[in-house]
Amino acid sequence: MSDRESNGMTGMGQTAATGPTDLNLLRTFLAVHRSGSFTAAARVLGLSQPTVTTQIRTLERRLGRDLFERQARGVVAVPFADALALRVAAPLDDLAVVTGDDGRTGAPVAGPVRLAGPAELLCLRALPALAALVTQGVRLRTSTGLTDPLLDELRSGQHDLVISTVRPRGRSLSAVPLMDEEFVLVTAPGVAERVGGPPAVAAAGPVVLHGVPLITYAEDLPIARRYWRHVFGRRLDCSAAVTVPDLRGVLSLVAAGAGFSVLPRYLCTAELTSGALTLLADPEDPPINTVYLVQRPGSAANPHVALVRDHLVRAGRGW
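Below the sequence we write its predicted structure tokens.
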């Protein structure tokens, strides 16, 4: 530590110690890394601030490296500490769930993690990925809805984590990329046949869909409008016949022959493969949207929030 948060700690310079490192030292390090403060980490761990300082000092001696630099408020991790946190976070969090030890001395069991997002993303991606954590004792409370209201609720403290289809602006929220979703223009085979199918769309453009009901999840048609601009280079000039605030409902209506829609490919891959849906366009450069996992800055008091967050980010790499 170049400048110490307290107790006059000095920089390293000694050779790293040999032998196994006490897991408690790593738990304390992770708490400081996540909270950005010895004092905040002490509260989370149920320890005194001098004890946290001593444990970080001991770990730095064992590693032969500084881990944190003092700032006006709290501490900032050096690059080596960031890399170390990346390596130890998941194993320590998983171990805490298995042992029922959340890292605090005499602390109560971690409370439920309040996770919110679009219904289809929660149900088809996030919740299956968290099944193993649930069996190990992590509790979840989920909410569904449109992105903007959910982000407002996150700012007000109603949620711990929100899966967001937009990157939030400003510094009141922090976001990490979770997955990319590709948008596709689809309809039922019978509807596709009536309008001339993909060849007609390729030749004449979206005008062939005039009079076909548009099924979407919101009145302002955000996905469809983006698709029209990106693929057809024009403004979408129609209104929704049906809005359903769950893309699975949009999918079921379109597959039943009610009209057409623009959907994430992951949501309708099975229907496209089986022939229940027809792809009306296949652009070389399809529109892609990045989905984010969002939370308020700083370390949450509930250690399972970080556990769920890290687990989802790892799972998202395979989505």
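Confidence is low (pLDDT under 50) at residues 2-13, 103-109.
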